[in-house]
Amino acid sequence: LDSTKGVMTDFVSLFGKTLYQEGKEEVGTAAKLKDKAYVAIFFGAAWSGSCKQFLPPLVQVYKKLIEEKGKSLEIVYVPASVPGRTPEDEASFKEMMGIMPWLAVPLHRRPIHKKLTRRFQVRQIPMLVLLDSNGKTVHRDITPAVTHIVEDADGDTFADQFPWTEKRYTNIKQMLGESFLKGDGSSVSLKELDGKYIGVLFSANWHWHCRRFQQLLEYMYEKLKSEGQPFEVVDMDFSAEMRWLAMPESSYELKQKLGEAFRVEQCPMLIIIDPEGNVVTTEGVEIVNKDSEGECFPWTPKPLYDLFTLEPEILGEMNETVTCVILCEGCDKDTKALVQEQMLPIATEYFDEAKASGCEAGILFFVATETNDVVHQLRVSCEIGEASNTPQMVLLDIPDAGAFYVYDGQSITTDDIRGFLQAYDEEQLERRELQEDEEDAQQDSK
Fold it and tell me: Which strands form 245-246's sheet, in the order they lie side by side?
């Protein structure tokens, strides 16, 4: 028992101590997932026509893998928590479980549905996430395969592709090839990129929007180079005028695999990777537009941000991710330091958990130590008044129709923050919606 305890802890913490099984009600999570090489999380909903279309072929694949191929796999269904949609009721849940031969997080455990939906950044359903036996993400989203599985009613092709490992390697440098071209046509080896942060650029020289972005990137590139910063750009499109490097035309297949791995649907797109080949951010275009001087280089993610400094790599994510903010711009120096000291441990917990599982953080954490336009707008939109000598905490869930929640406790300790987040997951907080600044509203109406 002890030998499986560490492995099972990840799944028990993910799903809870029990799972629902048709005909048996609730069964032990650890016992059911013991020795499974892979566990897939199926996010869906009874009201979704796409999910109902996806289910029959997925059942076919599941049976082929388990009964015919003897694969060590289990699927766990999670009713997705979707903003603006009524949570699944018991009748709908039972209807779904009557179709699915696998397990599910019990219907009454809605806080876990919500937490998992947030943790795995569920933007659309159906969505299938694949984990290994340690709870680490093997594939974050097999959604692109949904079309193929629906077209392949017998599930043979999809089953043959198991375990559906992600096309994106852990080390992105391994996907770039062994050599690159300079603008003068000379060659540079991959070895010369050792120790450097790399911007992988998907662009098109013939497109005016891409050319404009290239001009902005060129300015930052030259500035970082002049400062001796370890930064290089690798372009997918060669040009004799470019200041950086490009993959050669003969690397067509590598370029195609990179495009598929990052699901490049429009240009320009800039991926920043660190010297070890790990993805720092896919929001490189946003970075160049917001941090044209490169002051925040190398833009590596961190557990806790200051809303005052406006790190460009994270701003865009606030609109898509639950965000916890403590505003303390009116407080003295010691109070500001204490607020950050109390928030950092729980921010680090979420950050490390996401990193270990191969996911993006399910919650972003900010303090606001000084005021600026964003901090002012936040106070106006949340109707929490002017800054004072007392810290204030709010939780933003902008994807949920601009929802936000205000903390009304007397103190803000690490435990208070954790309790606030737990109350949010358990839907115990008063839900409000962001208000538009009157000045902005008047400008929009003109």
Answer: 187-189, 179-181, 245-246, 231-235, 197-202, 269-273, 279-281
Q: Is 132 helix (H, G, I), strand (E, B) or coil?
A: strand
- With H, G, I as helix, E, B as strand and everything else as coil, classify residue 384: coil
- Supply angle C-alpha 377, 379, 381, rounded to 5: 65
pLDDT for res 139: 83
Q: Are 396 and 323 in contact (CB under 8 A)?
A: yes
* Exposure on the CB side of residue 251, measured as CA atoms within 13 A: 21
Length of the chain: 446
Which tokens belong to 85? 């949609």
Position 149 pLDDT exceeds 60: yes
What count of other Cβ atoms lies within 10 Å of the Cβ of residue 326?
24
What is residue 16's three-state secondary structure?
coil
User: What is the pTM (predicted TM-score) of this model?
Assistant: 0.70
Give dist(CA 289, CA 306) in Å, integer: 19
Q: Which amino acid is at 246?
A: A
As a whole number, mean pLDDT of residues 153-174 equals 73
Rounded CA gap, 10 and 3, in Å? Answer: 14
Question: pLDDT at position 144, please?
Answer: 63
Predicted local distance difference test score (pLDDT) of residue 145: 62
As a whole number, the mean pLDDT across the chain is 86
User: Residue 235: what residue type?
Assistant: D
Answer for the pair 42, 117: CB distance below 8 angstroms, yes or no. no
Burial class (CB in 10 A: 0-12, 13-18, 19+), 348: middle
Structure tokens at 436: 């538009």
pLDDT band at 7 (very low <50, low <70, confident <90, very high): very low
Provide the pairing of β-strand 403-406 with 103-104. Answer: unpaired
Phi-psi group of 185: left, alpha or beta (phi > 0 → left; psi -120 to 50 → alpha; rest → beta)? left
The angle subtended at Cα 421 by Cα 83 and Cα 374, nearest 5°, is 75
Phi-psi region at 395: left, alpha or beta (left = phi > 0; alpha = psi -120 to 50): beta
CA atoms within 13 A on the CB side of 81: 22
CA-wise closest residue to 8 among 52, 74, 68:
74
The helix (run of H) or strand (run of E) holding residue 20 is strand 18-21
| Token pair listed for 16 | 């809870």
DSSP three-state, residue 393: strand
Measured distance CA(446)–CA(436) in Å, rounded: 15
Burial class (CB in 10 A: 0-12, 13-18, 19+), 208: exposed
Stretch 47-59: mean pLDDT, rounded? 87
Least confident range of 219-233, 286-300, 355-369? 355-369
